[in-house]
Design brief:
Order of helices and strands: HHHHHHHHHHH
Radius of gyration: 18 Å
Strand content: under 5%
Number of helices: 11
Shape: globular
Oligomer: single chain
Helix content: over 70%
């Protein structure tokens, strides 16, 4: 709560929670269902903001733009499930090391278990994302060698579930292809134009690694690409990521116009 944008996102999430629960109750929903729906809506705003800060740590205003875009999306889309967003945030954190703390074995196992649960509930995409993130960590500065084993395990689990469950991989529709092209263009521009980070890590106040920020943005791009092959539900399930990429892009364009 020491930074203005932290306070803003707390206030915004609270307003969204109150507005959502009021709307649900007035629509005739039971109180417990209204609370769950409102909680997911409020957390969506938070995760849009938090994910943007992971992929674009030097520009806090981009995170607020992403939160605003997420509010607009909630007017038209169902509130996403939170666990895939939690996992995505974990993967970003172990990759960019913004916290300044090297992930422990417990952290790695927790991520693996969370992702495995999601894989077995039909989110095969999560396994590929985990495998890529763990592998990238082994190739960057201050690598954690055990993550190569974790990457291999995640890949095997994901492929095994895909094979045994006969999960259908859907090809993108025309409007999804358009979004795909925008995603690729915007993400590649951000990756190419990644500069030396000005932000310091949370704990040790060390300079962040440019290579790790680039790797985080590559994971975000991969997550966006894979959701397009998982159908509409998969596409919607992590829409705060899309608003995060959108917020970062909008802020980038505004800065270039200035």
């Amino acid at each position: 709560m020491d930074y203005p944008d932290n306070r803003i996102i707390i206030y915004l999430s609270t307003v969204i929670f109150i507005a959502s629960i009021s709307y649900q109750i007035l629509s005739g929903e039971r109180l417990n269902e209204a609370i769950i729906w409102a909680g997911r809506s409020a957390l969506s705003i938070f995760f849009a903001w938090a994910i943007t800060k992971e992929i674009d740590p030097d520009n806090p205003h981009a995170a607020l733009i992403a939160a605003g875009l997420c509010v607009c999306c909630l007017l038209f889309l169902e509130s996403p499930f939170i666990l895939p967003l939690v996992l995505l945030l974990f993967l970003f954190r172990i990759t960019n090391r913004i916290s300044g703390i090297i992930p422990t074995l417990f952290d790695s196992i927790l991520i693996l278990l969370t992702g495995t649960y999601l894989i077995y509930t039909g989110n095969w995409i999560q396994g590929l994302l985990m495998s890529f993130a763990f592998f990238m960590d082994t190739r960057l500065n201050e690598p954690i060698k055990r993550h190569f084993i974790f990457a291999f395990i995640c890949l095997i689990i994901s492929l095994f579930v895909l094979y045994r469950s006969n999960i259908e991989i859907l090809f993108p529709s025309q409007y999804q292809i358009f979004i795909l092209l925008l995603l690729i263009v915007f993400s590649i521009v951000k990756i190419i134009n990644t500069g030396i980070p000005r932000t310091l890590s949370d704990v040790k106040s060390k300079p962040l690694s440019k290579e790790r920020i680039i790797a985080t943005r590559m994971i975000a791009l991969l997550a966006g690409l894979l959701t397009l092959f998982g159908g509409l539900n998969s596409f919607i399930s992590i829409f705060p990521l899309w608003t995060a990429i959108g917020g970062s892009t909008v802020y980038y364009i505004i800065q270039k116009i200035k």
